[in-house]
Amino acid sequence: MTSSPLRGSSRAATPMAFVQAIVRGYERHGMDPAGALRQAQIPPHELRDPHARVTAAQFEALSGHAMQELDDEALGWFSRRLPWGTYGMLCRASITSPDLGVAIRRWCRHHRLLTNDITLELAVAGGVATVAITEHRDLGLFREFCLVSSLRFLHGYACWAIDSRVSLQAAAFSFDAPPHRDAYPLMFGGELRFGADKTSYSFDERYLAMPLLRDERALRAMLRRALPLTVLQYRRDRLLGQRVRELLRTRAAEAGNAASIAALLNLSSRTLHRQLQEEGLSLQALKDSARHELAAEQLRRTDRPIKQIALAVGFRNEKSFSRAFSAWAGMTPGTFRQRDVPHRNRS
After folding, report:
1. How far from the centroid of its chain's Cα atoms is residue 141's Cα?
2. At what angle do helices 269-278 and 240-250 cross, to 10 degrees?
């Protein structure tokens, strides 16, 4: 049988366990999921296959139909329904925030008005922002789907609000690794850990200072879809250039080429180059800038021979380094050093 447009519209990566959780929500509300499964073009017999997957389009169709039919955007997770439009209200309550940090804190605060079953909280320490979930009751068979979805709703909203990928450094889950753990890198990225004390994810604190770029009109357009926050992937990362600069400055030995830099950022080399290009940057220009900064610092603060500095910042010989440095600074390394003699630390 040939695939229909919905079933073949993207790679099937969403675990059948999440489909089963929605069916369980129908059972909790005493309703028949047949219509929702039909809308998503998911044959009922596939529910019994724990290894089966569905596409993002299928899962969005299933979720959207179920949320409206059950009039419960929590799909049965919580001790009371979250009527259709609840998460839209959360988005609307945060859309006027001056920056992402305020928006996330408002989301967490307003979420407490909807349910006492879980609470979300934003904490910042050491340059890292962490959104964590505290569970206040046994979520039973809904636990994994509830916790994962709650994080992804907020993460998706954050990406949408600033029109940028919010790249995650790590994600932790308060349950054991499920059989479909291979789907988690596609949903979260960064370092993944199961069996943690709390379910959470962490990202660079600097995203919190980014202004929101969406307005009420954009919000209305976004909310016409059921789950754009969980299935829409943002390719552009507005912090990527800064993150690459930091790696080149602080972990130069590990960030020698595009492949190693991409690996440190949990990206492919192709994605790294494409996203930098979208920011109007190039990896070579960032590497040159990092070399220039490091070389200038060593020329100002040390008495190391210029040949050693050339090798330390990645040049094969002093001649090529001097040529490049002259292009950067408008003067040779020796002239630059002599000009900055009073500022050098000879201790």
Report:
1. 26
2. 120
Is 88 in the same domain as 159?
A: yes
Instruction: Report phi then psi at 133, rounded to 5.
Output: -110, 130
d(CA 96, CA 246): 31
Tokens representing residue 163 in the block? 């029109």
Look at the chain and report how many structural domains it folds into.
4
Q: Compute φ and ψ for 106, nearest 5 degrees.
A: -65, -40
Mean predicted confidence (pLDDT) in 86-111: 95
CATH number at residue 320: 1.10.10.60
Contact 122, 56 (CB under 8 A): no
Q: Pairing relation of β-strands 118-125 and 168-173?
A: unpaired
Which has more confidence, 4 or 16?
Answer: 16
Q: How far is CA 346 from the centre of its chain?
A: 45
Average the pLDDT over 10-32 and give the result: 91
Q: Is the pLDDT of residue 8 over 50?
A: no
Domain that holds residue 133: 83-231
Instruction: Mark whether 158 and 66 lie in a shared domain.
Output: no
| Residue 106, CA distances (Å) to 89, 110, 121 in order | 12, 6, 10
Measure Cα distances from 278 to 166, 237, 245, 272, 273 in Å: 15, 9, 16, 10, 9
Q: Is residue 261 domain-shared with residue 332, that is, in the same domain? A: no
Report the distance separating Cα 284 and Cα 274, nearest Å: 13
Nearest CA to 276 out of 239, 233, 234, 232 is that of 239
214 and 95, same structural domain? yes
Closest to 315 measured CA to CA, from 347, 290, 279, 281: 290
Q: Do 306 and 275 lie in a common domain?
A: no
Separation of alpha carbons 297 and 289, rounded Å: 12
**Are 9 and 22 within one domain?**
yes
| Burial class of residue 42 (count of CB atoms within 10 Å of its CB; 0-12, 13-18, 19+) | buried
